[in-house]
C-alpha cells in the first residue's frame, strides 16, 4: 500500500513537471516561396497566455489574420492544450526575409518565439494561392509580357511591354509595382507612358479590357539564352462574392492580389563573322554616314569645324565613331562628342557626331582623306560599309611668311596624307652686314632711364609679395578650380546630362576612359578596367584611388541596367571630379 502511494506521488510530480514546460513556437507553412505567393505563419503555445504581441512583419504584407484557435482535450486522463494565432503573409521583396519574434505572457513570465528565415525567389509562373477569394481574382487578372523579337542579334534593339488584362467580372481600384525586372544582360531604357489607356480586346478568346503598364527598350549585350524577368504588381481587386444585398444583388469583396508575368527567354544570335569588315566597331542598325566641314576656303590662322556624323536608328549610344585622319600641318583639337538621340518603342533614333576643330598653320591645299564606317543591318542580315569622300581645304593669305609656298605631297603611310612645306630661301633671315654704334656713358648717367632702373626694384618687391600672397590664397581652393583644362573638358560633358541619370552615366564612363586614354596615351582597343589598373599601378598611383576609380566605372556599367537615383548621380559626379583631378596632378 505504501509502495503504491509513493508511485502515485511520483507520477503526479512527473505530470506536473511535464505540464510546467511551456512551449511557444512559430510554425510556417513553407520556408521558400515565390514573390507572388503567400504563406501562413502560426504562433503556437501549449498553455494559456495573455498580452500576445505579433512581430512587426516589416518584410511582409499581412493579407489575412489574426486567426485565433484553441484546442483543449483529455486523452487517457492526460490534458492536451493548444492555442495559436495565425496570419497570411505576402513577401515585399526577394531574398532571405526574416519573420521576427512574437511575445506572450504565460504565468507572469514573458516568452518569445525564435525568428524564422524565409527564402523568397522571383515570381513563379503558377503561384499557389492559399484561399479561394484570391483564386477567383487570379482567374480574372493576367499580366502578360510582349516581346517584339525573341531571336535578335547581339546589340539589336527589341521592345518589351507589360500588359495587364482585366476580366469584366472584376474591377481594380489601385495598383503598384513591388518588384521591377532587372535586365542584367541588357542595355535598357524605360519609355515614359504619360497616360494609361484602357482598351477593349480579347484574351484566350474571351472579352477582356487591357492596359499597357510599362514599355522598355533592350539591347542584348551577350549571346545565348537570356531571361526577361517578370514584373510583379500588388492590386486591390473588387471580386464578386456569395453575399447579396437586400434586393438580391451580389456584393463585391475587395481583396489584395498579387499578379506577375511569366519569365520569358529569348535567344540572342551572335553577329556573323563571315564578311565582317576590319573597321567594324559594333554598330547594329540602319545608318547614314557623313563627314561635314563648315568651310572649305579660309585664311591662315582661321579655324574650321569638321563633323564626323552617324544618323539613323540602332544602337547609337553603344559604339564609337571612326577617328578623323588629317594632314600633319593641320592643328587638330580633341573632338567634342555630341548625342542627339531619342529612345522610342522602336529603339534609339537620331544622330551622334564628333565635332573636330582644325586650325591650318600655313598656306596651301590640305586634303581630309576619305573615311569609312561599317555597321551590321539585322533586317538584311549583312554588313554594310559607307564612305565619306575626300574633302579638300584651301588655305590662303593670312600671316604666312613672304616668299614661302606650300606644296602638298601624298605619302602612303597607312591611309594618312602628310604635307611637306618647302622654303625657297632657307637662310634669308641671317643678316650678314651689321651696324654697331658706340654707347656714350656720360649721356646715360643721371638720365631718366638711369633713375627708372635705379628705383624699379623698390616698386617690384611689394608687387611680388602681393602676388605671392594671392597665389597662396588661391591654392587653398583645391577643387574644380585647380583642375586642368583636360579634366574640365571630359567632365563638363557628363555634367550637362546630370538631370538624366541614364545619359549621365554613359557620358561619365566615356569621360573616365577618355581621360585615361588621353593622359596615358593608351590605344582605344586596349582600354579596359584591367588595363587601367595595370597602368595606374605602374605610375605608382595609390591603391585607394585606383579602387575608387574602378568603382566609378562599375557604377557606370550598372547604371545601364538599373535605374539610379539623382542622389547617386550627384555623389558620383563629385567623386569623379575629385579622383580625376587627383590623377591629373599625379600623372
Automatic annotation (TrEMBL):
<keyword id="KW-0812">Transmembrane</keyword>
<protein>
    <submittedName>
        <fullName>BatD family protein</fullName>
    </submittedName>
</protein>
<dbReference type="InterPro" id="IPR025738">
    <property type="entry name" value="BatD"/>
</dbReference>
<keyword id="KW-0472">Membrane</keyword>
<dbReference type="Pfam" id="PF13584">
    <property type="entry name" value="BatD"/>
</dbReference>
<keyword id="KW-1133">Transmembrane helix</keyword>
<feature type="transmembrane region" description="Helical">
    <location>
        <begin position="448"/>
        <end position="467"/>
    </location>
</feature>
